[in-house]
Amino acid sequence: MNTSTRMLLALAAFCVACGAPSFAKSPAKVSRTYALVDGARIAAADSEPQNWMAHGRTYGEQRFSPLKQVNAGNVEKLGLAWSYATGTLRGLQATPIVVDGMMFTTGVWSVVYALDAKTGQEIWKYDPEVPREWGRYACCDAVNRGVAVWKGSVYFATLDGRLVCLDARTGGRRWEVNTIDRSKPYTITGAPRIVKDKVLIGNGGAEYGVRGYFSAYDASTGKLVWRFYTVPGNPKDGFENPELEAAAKTWNGEWWVGGGGGTVWDSMAYDPDLDTLYVGTGNGSPWARDIRSPGGGDNLFLSSILAMNPDTGRLKWHYQVTPADNWDYTATQHIILADLVIEGKTRKVLMQAPKNGFFYVLDRETGQLISADKFAPVTWASRVDLTTGRPVETPEATYSRETRLIVPAPVGAHNWQPMAYNPGTGLVYIPAMQPMGIYALSKEFQETGKYPRRDMFWNPGIDWDAFIDTALGLMEQLGGPLPPDRGYLKAWDPLQKKTVWEIEHPAFWNGGLLTTAGDLLFQGTGDGRFVAYAADTGKILWAVPTSIGIIAPPITYEVDGEQYVAVMAGYGGSGGLSGGDPRTMASGKYVNEGYVFAFKLGGKAPMPRVAEKNHLIPEQPAIDATAAQLENGKYRYMGTCMVCHGALAMSGGVVPDLRMLPPEKHAIFNEIVYDGIIHGAGMPKLSDLVSEQDVHDIHAYVISRANEDRNPPVPGVDSEK
Ligand code: CA
To answer: Which percentage of the chain shows pLDDT scores above 90?
Structure first.
């Protein structure tokens, strides 16, 4: 730590000790203020429920609002107050921040929008000009989950790893720092959090071979204060701290070659009383533990909840939800802090429903596991042993020797879409899923014992041939396409450890949640609706068709005495790009235009009209390809194209469905893929990953898939018209 960092730390500590700056009290009514938020104001967020000042509204991230002007008795009168068109066609995942009548939010390619929260009028917009070629490192769309605000500044991170500070009033840039090794495929999609004048930010990339970490930057200068790596590096280089030296004992082989993973790409929460920051870590890189750490080991701190000292960046305690992760079971899912009465005693708890399908309640002072129960169908483990705190794996969980069908799939029983906790009902609401995963260990690794080919950048150690063959075999058994995965809304009682009610959704990939003191629960859906439920019973009280799939979580706020409920609409993310069945999703039917919608009682603005898509697969050009070339094309497609354009070349409708390519795109297929001539539209140049022959073979594979689906027609795709 250098002298100036020490001085800044001392200054930060002084400011905390002397209380909040005077301007933080009672926001001025006379003239607009711009995001004059600090820790004292966020900690006292319930005293100004008109604002949504931090990612989960409060530091504890319950996503519960005390506002109740809109309530179960009048919610049917909700109407659109305003809409703002972002002009984008990909996923929108941000939680807007609203302070004193101003809304700050983010969209595709990390663009920031400042809007008048009462009218939707754009005040300013900031485009960080993310190089579009970086999109190929983004497993899960060019999305961004929002900004943080602090003392008149707006903070956000870019897909290509920069952390940026803007003037909240003008959108002018105050500072920008690079947070990553730019030679490595790191991405940032998460929202920063700000604690004690430190901006906290992690990153993603564990499907591409990176080492996870998160960092704290000084809010006023952008200087790095501390960084915590979540997995140990090569021991030869020395360990950054004793925590990592101890963690290295839980790894084997040359794990650092594949980076190890453990990326911190989403969840954080903070308890000001305990002065503890909670952080969720991601999956192993690669997924397959046989490759990542041959000889076993828990591989700390993969898939863990870390309790941190926010001043020093040192670990207080950890709890690993999925030891020896083998399935992409991240613990980056939303963390909620609450005080629950358990067996007559008030406990300060932390709750998480990570991908692995268990609902965890931990004592957040000590890290002690209180309960862990299946909130969704799970086949990889039978239960969690409360004595050891460890899951009991089933024999079906390993795929070292044979291909396995495992529930949940890598997309998880719950992904990044935030849950919500309502202290009134005592329920936690979870945007839940029931996806089935096909896991097969890389054939190359099985045969050679070596790391699988690294020229395919999306490389979790999975054998795509076996994956495809298994999927095709299942389709043959069923006599048709695989049924869509189940997506549903679940109300979970964390004390009774059971489901209270569930609502089925047509699409498996749906929106995050908001609950309010008006006994309401709001959620947008993948099939293109925005819905209000009774928080206690789950009864649908109000719904508006949006024609746009919604994945972002709603927020609520008040301006000039009127309560608004706002949400971003724009389908995307991993489930929207590749995992879904376009027949169940709005993005399969309508153009995926991006909007911010704000509703209020008696709102009269018309919902925007969204154009319908053409679903006819056009006639395909002739292409010469041998059986071996088609096979290579399929393999290359799975390794380089599938993650965005969908399995079997069937897109979820967010990025182009390659079966629908018009003749003019077929004519320049090689120029698009190999030379990157439309990289400005987000399609990266891939010449360093595939040869021109590979591109030809991929093209042949895509054409063969289109021809298969043209004749005979696939129900719901090209038979709709
Ligand atoms: Ca992952």
So the answer is: 77
